Amino acid sequence: MLFLVAALLLLGVVVGAAAHLPLPVTLVAAAVIGCWLLFYGLRSHRGTTSRQTTGFGGGEAR
């Protein structure tokens, strides 16, 4: 629940900041954020990350 409140508060701050920026700056920022989310989503969907984690008990001797 606290995470949801923090996310909504952050969304309000971002939307409020975008309301005071010129439209071209807002559109460029939106495009950058959209590309970043697309890249992250594709990488997450394919299951490839920069480091593979096996978790605890993954057959590694400690």
Q: Please, could you describe this protein's structure?
A:
This protein is mainly alpha-helical and 62 residues long. Helices cover 69% and strands 0% of the residues.
Notable traits:
62 residues, mainly alpha, 2 helices, 69% helix
Explain the layout of strands and helices.
Blueprint (H helix, E strand, L loop, with lengths): L1 H19 L2 H24 L16
In short:
By secondary structure, the chain is mainly α.
Order of helices and strands: HH
The radius of gyration computed from the alpha-carbon positions, rounded to a whole number of angstroms, is 18 Å
Tally of helical runs: 2
Oligomeric status of the shown chains?
single chain
Anisotropy-based shape: flat
* Uncertain residue ranges: none
Fraction in beta strands: under 5%
The number of strands is: 0
- Outline the biggest β-sheet: none
